[in-house]
């Protein structure tokens, strides 16, 4: 029992090396940072130029300008695009062991399989925070370049909420890790991430998004007054429950399954 922390640390180092060497993660990182920031800025500029087709898709943000519009557009993109991107990466992290046939080798290691799964989720969470930092920084740079205005306290608050939104979106993709484990492939995980995104959008349209953990973060980032701290705190249920389910499933894995 005394060597368990060292085993977890060793597994974390290995998983960190895997994720930093992965072309899948490299591509996802670029798309999540540069892709989201550039798309949001492009839509922001098009709306500012009076493009009626773009304005019709922006909802309440069609009547805003400056940082408020840019951050609102970015939050909408993050709610869907980042969820799919994060879901793909966490599904790859878990599912690749099955698709590459390396899962059998993990049974011969002295590191317990739940430790390996925990390491995967922890490394993924750290990567999510890094993406959040770089994405917000990219939005700030592009916002300044496109003339969104000066950064006051209200804008700083919006940027802080965007940062939290990106991290929470990453944590909301944990069900994809469990699905990838159950399906022994990354595709069930990606499908789960898509399903979560669809569910969140339906809940927002139906007006019940504040009480649905998968929808509350995006709603809070755009309209903080519409979501209470209690409702936002419910988001923690998703990573805790599905993280535990993933670890439990990895503990019960069998080679003949």
UniProtKB/TrEMBL annotation:
Coiled coil: none annotated. Pfam families: ABC2_membrane_4. It comes from Nocardia uniformis. Keywords: Membrane, Transmembrane, Transmembrane helix. This is ABC transporter permease subunit. The chain crosses the membrane at residues 27-50, 70-94, 115-145, 151-174, 186-212, 232-253.
């Amino acid at each position: 029992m005394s060597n368990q922390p060292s085993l977890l640390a060793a597994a974390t180092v290995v998983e960190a090396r895997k994720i930093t060497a992965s072309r899948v993660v490299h591509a996802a990182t670029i798309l999540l940072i540069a892709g989201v920031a550039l798309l949001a800025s492009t839509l922001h500029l098009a709306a500012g130029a009076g493009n009626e087709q773009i304005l019709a898709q922006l909802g309440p943000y069609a009547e805003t300008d400056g940082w408020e519009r840019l951050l609102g557009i970015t939050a909408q993109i993050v709610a869907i695009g980042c969820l799919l991107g994060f879901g793909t990466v966490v599904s790859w992290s878990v599912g690749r062991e099955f698709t590459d046939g390396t899962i059998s080798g993990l049974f011969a290691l002295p590191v317990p399989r739940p430790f390996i799964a925990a390491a995967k989720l922890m490394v993924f969470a750290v990567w999510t925070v890094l993406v959040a930092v770089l994405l917000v920084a990219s939005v700030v740079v592009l916002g300044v370049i496109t003339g969104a205005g000066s950064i006051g306290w209200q804008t700083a608050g919006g940027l802080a909420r965007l940062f939290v939104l990106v991290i929470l979106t990453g944590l909301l993709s944990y069900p994809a890790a469990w699905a990838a484990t159950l399906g022994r492939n990354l595709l069930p995980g990606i499908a789960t991430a898509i399903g979560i995104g669809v569910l969140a959008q339906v809940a927002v349209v139906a007006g019940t998004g504040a009480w649905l953990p998968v929808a509350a973060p995006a709603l809070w980032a755009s309209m903080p007054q519409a979501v209470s701290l209690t409702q936002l705190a419910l988001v923690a249920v998703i990573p805790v429950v599905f993280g535990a389910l993933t670890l439990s499933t990895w503990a019960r894995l069998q080679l003949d399954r």
